[in-house]
Amino acid sequence: MTKEQEVKDYMMQHLPDYYDYLRIPGISAQDTGIDETVQWLTDKFTALGAVEVKQWHELGGNPVLYAEFAGKSDQTLLFYNHYDVQPPEPLDEWESEPFEPTAKNGKLYARGVADDKGELISRLILVQYFAEHGGLPLNLKFIVEGQEEVGSPTIQDYVHAHQEELTAEACIWEGGGKDEDEKFKITAGLKGILSFDMEVETAETDLHSSLASYADNAAWRLVQALNSLKDANGKILVDGYYDDIKPLEPAAQKALEEMEFNEAEVKKQFGLKTPLVTDQPLQELTNGTTMTINGINAGYTGPGVKTVIPRQAQAKFDCRLVPDQRPTKIYELIRQHLDAHGFEDIKLKYQVGEDPSRTSLEDEFVKLNIAIAQEVYGTDGISIVPNSAGTGPGAQFVEELDLPLVSVGIGYSGNGPHGPNEHIRDQDFRDGSWFMYRLLEEYGQK
Asked: Which of 381, 386, 376 is nearest to 406 (CA)?
């Protein structure tokens, strides 16, 4: 039996050992199962032989877990993961119980198995494998937070407070996997985010709609404000919104030009019913900024007829940001825009902000990830991504800890994170774990 087959078989043999972890509903948005999850992981890190296991909770929020394993070299690699998951609703769309791991047709179904418990499970089983086969080739540190799914409001404070303990040479981010063309992604950064609410009130009570002859309508007022933010082609009209966008470095631009976008597969996967809003989707996914209405609420929307003028209207937004945009600055620019266009009565509420981050593709750690991925998946089987279209608190690790950051993992584009029937594929779990085995082995020799 080859070493590759041995490792892959070991991974699948021990995957069920973590089913109890998948059964715990650690839902940060609902404050459910957090203590149980933290204790389960604390016990697991200890059982695996960590030389240090700590629960950080002195700065508020859900506890942050820290664990350290000693290896045979002076190199230290830091893993970032999160133990919290999304709520399972809508429950009637699940084909199995969300918190009962269900293996079927070469897939494992469970809430959180793709985002992000499966990634951590893969890494912990590898720790166990190395412990039983001569020891870890390098030192490993784990930081596992419990509020990623609600915007990581405290992780920046914990990273700052524990900077010395988190010292390492490089960081592997929470996860990754294969794209729509089944190419394994090496992703070197994350977009940032600004999340905020918008609200307007035009009266103290809903009015009879006949009074629309003279009374303002909160819903229309909100719509008018929204229309001032973007034009019909999707350009954001807020002055200064695009000013701080950092151009891609030559290596990142080259990688972007070599990437592929499978429009037909994307449309099929998500059931898109309208044309794409851009003719450069890869450019926009990588270094494009967005402003998205997440939801709108106003007036009566139930069955039948109710002829009223809504007194209140609300909308929720997020803006995906790229280097070097900052969420606090963008928030202030939006406030200034509304005031300048006569919408001083529109109230804004800042919810969440995370800075973007991007590691140079010329970094030696990034190059090592690429080399190992080519070995495992083939030269034509990988995709180098300057940064993901998604968001995470990576900037704290890149900027404050001064670490190169790479996202790789065991997923694929059809995992369904945050939705019903979230799952991972057995083959991806085996292959992604073998990739990580080879990465740890090689990096330990640097």
From this structure: 386
CA distances for 172 relative to 81, 141, 329, angstroms = 9, 10, 29
> Could you report the per-residue pLDDT of 258-274, keeping only the tens digit for each?
888 989 988 998 899 99
On whether both 141 and 18 belong to a single domain, the answer is yes
Helices (H) and strands (E) in the chain, counts: 13, 19
Residues 39 and 89 in one domain: yes
In contact, 400 and 377? CB cutoff 8 Å: no
**CB neighbour list of residue 35: distance below 8 Å, 6 or more residues apart:** none
In a domain, 227, yes or no: yes
User: Is residue 274 in a domain?
Assistant: no
Residue 312's H or E segment, with its range, is strand 312-321
Closest-CA residue to 79 (of 116, 134, 129, 104): 116
pLDDT tens string 308-345: 999 999 999 999 999 999 999 999 999 999 999 999 99
Q: Where are the beta strands (DSSP E) in 232-303?
A: 292-298
CATH number at residue 211: 3.30.70.360
Entry pTM = 0.90
Q: What are the backbone angles phi and psi of residue 10, rounded to the nearest 5°? A: -60, -40
**Neighbouring C-beta atoms of residue 211, cutoff 10 Å:** 12
Count the neighbouring beta carbons within 10 Å of the beta carbon of residue 46.
12
Domain coverage including residue 137: 3-190+358-443
